[in-house]
């Protein structure tokens, strides 16, 4: 029997049928692979477009000719970026992906998140400034009034109105403070503000129990890059002013001005604060 089976495998009929079977399998496999390549676009890819700074309202138009899809998966609060714009994406721009791939997007929130107003009243000015920064708020004007509690926060205001602790408020809101300056004619030294940003200067002025006067920019369009190059009254160890007095600041983005500040002020200017 074994010899008969062996003889069959060696027969011309078996070899022809086996060859036909192999050819049919090869043709079927080739057709299948060709179909898979055409349907899945195997080996073909396109670069991921750069979605950064594209506004939400413009996303559909932006992807209309890019052969990709998008999905917004999260929003991020960023005071420096335009509201409702893409700030991050996955995959990154330039990465190779197949057509019709979903690109995941992170956009800046249109509305700032709301928080509860912290209790600043009865705290020291230094504590209040730290809390304002920690809560994502902005320090506005500091007004000093006669009160037996020197450097104590007497009122917290938003747009000129008192706001109580616990009230809902948007991050980035400007908070003004009314601060006690004591009942004496105490004087403090004028801090040097040259080279500071507006935000840094406001904090330094408040830390020294003084208030912000006028703010003048050489070019308001460069406000984010500007730094203090001049102040009135000028700083100095022997230049003292009353607690709560105002300091005017002048800012510029011109590095030459900042490096060589004009700190000269006339006696008449200084006398306004004495």
Can you describe this structure in just a few lines?
By secondary structure, the chain is an alpha+beta fold.
Account of the protein in words:
Mean pLDDT is 84; it is low at 262-274. The chain has 7 helices and 16 strands. Helix content is 26%, strand content 31%. It has helices spanning 2-9, 12-40, 59-63, 125-134, 198-207, 255-259, 267-271; strands at residues 46-47, 69-76, 86-90, 96-97, 102-108, 114-116, 138-145, 153-158, 161-162, 168-170, 174-180, 187-190, 211-217, 227-232, 236-242, 246-252. The N and C termini lie far apart (125 Å). The longest helix is centred in the N-terminal third of the chain and has 29 residues, at 12-40. Strand 8 (153-158) and strand 9 form a beta hairpin. A 4-stranded mixed beta sheet has the order 7-11-8-9. The chain has a 3-stranded mixed beta sheet with strand order 2-5-3, with no helix packed on it. It has a 3-stranded mixed beta sheet with strand order 13-16-14. The protein has 274 residues and is α+β, with helices and mostly antiparallel strands. The chain folds into 3 domains: 2-32; 46-108, Trypsin Inhibitor V, Chain A (2-Layer Sandwich); 114-271, 2-Layer Sandwich (Trypsin Inhibitor V, Chain A). It is elongated, with a radius of gyration of 36 Å.
């Amino acid at each position: 029997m074994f010899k008969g089976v062996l003889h069959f495998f060696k027969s011309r009929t078996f070899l022809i049928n086996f060859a036909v079977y192999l050819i049919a399998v090869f043709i079927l496999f080739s057709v299948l692979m060709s179909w898979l390549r055409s349907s899945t676009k195997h080996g073909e890819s396109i670069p991921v477009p750069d979605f950064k700074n594209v506004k939400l309202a413009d996303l559909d138009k932006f992807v209309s000719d890019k052969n990709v899809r998008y999905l917004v998966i999260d929003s991020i609060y960023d005071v420096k970026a335009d509201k409702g714009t893409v700030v991050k994406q996955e995959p990154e721009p330039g990465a190779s992906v197949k057509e019709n791939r979903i690109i995941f997007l992170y956009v800046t929130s249109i509305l700032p998140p709301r928080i509860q107003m912290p209790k600043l009243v009865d705290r020291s000015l230094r504590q209040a400034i730290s809390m304002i920064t920690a809560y994502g708020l902005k320090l506005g004007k500091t007004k000093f009034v006669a009160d037996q509690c020197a450097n104590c926060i007497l009122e917290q205001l938003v747009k000129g109105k008192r706001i109580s602790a616990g009230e809902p408020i948007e991050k980035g809101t400007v908070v003004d403070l009314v601060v006690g300056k004591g009942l004496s004619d105490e004087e403090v030294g004028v801090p040097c503000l040259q080279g500071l940003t507006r935000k840094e200067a406001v904090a330094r002025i408040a830390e020294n129990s003084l208030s912000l006067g006028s703010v003048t920019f050489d070019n308001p369009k460069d406000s984010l890059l500007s730094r203090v190059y001049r102040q009135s009254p000028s700083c100095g160890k022997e230049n003292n002013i009353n607690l709560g007095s105002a300091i005017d600041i002048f800012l510029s983005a011109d590095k030459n001005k900042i490096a060589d500040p004009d700190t000269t002020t006339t006696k008449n200017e200084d006398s306004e604060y004495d």
